[in-house]
Write a structure and sequence with these properties.
By secondary structure, this protein is α/β, with parallel strands linked by helices. It has 3 domains: 118 residues, OB fold (Dihydrolipoamide Acetyltransferase, E2P); 143 residues, P-loop containing nucleotide triphosphate hydrolases (Rossmann fold); 47 residues, no CATH class. It is 32% helix and 21% strand. The chain is built from 11 helices and 13 strands. The strands form 3 sheets. A 6-stranded mixed beta sheet has the order 10-9-8-11-13-12, with helices on both faces. Strand 12 and strand 13 form a beta hairpin. Helix 4 crosses helix 9. The N and C termini lie far apart (50 Å). 35% of the residues are buried.
Length: 363
């Protein structure tokens, strides 16, 4: 692919927030990342500001199309900064775009139709059908798309911050329900001594047996990367995990030219390239794409009902429908097939415990 050619920095075209509170107004989903606790009144205010600005941006997009309707082209959303998108066109050039009104939310990874409206500017007029879309709730509980058209989910763990099975299971459920392949990547293995390695294996060593590969790497020392490169070659993969697990360092290890790609995106957005604050798509040298996403404290998969949740645990499949009671809640009822599988060592009791906890939240 030709090296992307950037046009005028996007801040010259569309002004961006210069402080965290302003960023939260532009995109409320970023409020938790800033550690700022918002009360209900502030949330409503930010939501109203965001809706007003989205409406203004949509009206601006419609006006630009009326004034300078260009030929419709295909493109890929590389990143989204607030109300503005960065699109990669068919020639590999990056173009700042607004989003046309009433076509939904375009996110990183989306394939779109867009029209040029001026000197290296454009308007996205349609979002093509997605083969997958990863959704997570924002700070107010509203479901927001995070990335689209993903083939592989890489959940990154590290010795610090301490990995959590519950969060890991939530990611794996989302992958299962979206029919996306998932693997677990333990980063920062250079920080583990023999005792730490034994402790991690005891806590997470059951996942490969149920079909989730576990790859151990050290992004800092660039060790163990070959299996990970093989797993993402020719795919669109997304890195997910808690803040501090080293996703950005891992992306840098997998992408020799990441500094160039990130620097150019930063030139468009006016933001620094050292801290990941938005979801960005990068091109892998061996083919395929890598999506780096902001770290999270929590994640909740989109689960419609208990049956949906049951399907999210892949090792439950052979036992579903074999309980004594058709409406079995798997909470200690007589002849529960899942409980029997736990007793026989076929299902890890911690997975069933997490299922029960999640099911309790469904109401």
């Amino acid at each position: 692919m030709n090296e992307p050619i950037l046009a005028e920095p996007i801040q010259a075209l569309y002004p961006f927030a210069a402080n965290p509170i302003q960023e939260a107004e532009d995109d409320p989903s970023k409020a938790p990342l800033m550690g700022r606790r918002l009360n209900q009144q502030q949330r409503l205010r930010i939501g109203a500001i965001q809706q007003r600005r989205l409406q203004q941006a949509a009206e601006s997009a419609e006006q630009q199309l009326r004034q300078d309707p260009g030929q419709q082209q295909s493109g890929r959303v590389i990143s989204r900064f607030g109300r503005n998108l960065i699109i990669e066109d068919a020639q590999g050039q990056l173009v700042p775009c607004l989003l046309r009104q009433n076509i939904g939310q375009a996110v990183c990874g989306d394939r779109v139709a867009w029209q040029a409206t001026g000197d290296r500017q454009g308007v996205v007029s349609a979002i093509e059908a997605r083969r997958s879309v990863l959704i997570r709730p924002n700070y107010s509980g509203q479901e927001r798309p995070l990335a689209a058209n993903i083939d592989r989910m890489i959940i990154v763990l590290a010795p610090e911050p301490a990995p959590r099975r519950y969060l890991l299971d939530q990611y794996l459920i989302a992958a299962r329900l979206l029919c996306i392949e998932a693997l677990i990547c333990l980063n920062k293995t250079d920080l583990l001594d023999a005792a730490g390695e034994a402790s991690f294996s005891q806590e997470f060593g059951d996942y490969p047996a149920i079909g989730y590969p576990l790859i151990r790497v050290s992004a800092r020392q660039e060790q163990g990367l070959a299996p990970l490169l093989d797993a993402v070659r020719g795919r669109t993969a997304i890195l997910l995990g808690q803040s501090g697990v080293g996703k950005s360092s891992l992306a840098s290890a997998l992408l020799p030219d990441r500094e160039i790609q990130t620097g150019r995106l930063s030139a468009f957005s006016g933001k620094g390239c050292h801290t990941t604050t938005t979801t960005c798509l990068y091109h892998l040298p061996q083919g395929g794409e890598l999506i780096d996403s902001p770290g999270v404290r929590s994640f909740r998969p989109t689960v419609k009902d208990r049956s949906d949740l049951e399907c999210g645990f892949r090792e439950f499949a052979p036992y579903l429908g074999h309980c004594r009671f058709s409406n079995c809640q798997h909470r200690g009822e007589p002849q529960c097939a899942l409980q029997q599988a736990v007793e026989q060592g076929q299902i890890d009791p911690r997975r069933l415990a997490n299922f029960r906890h999640m099911a309790a939240g469904l109401g």
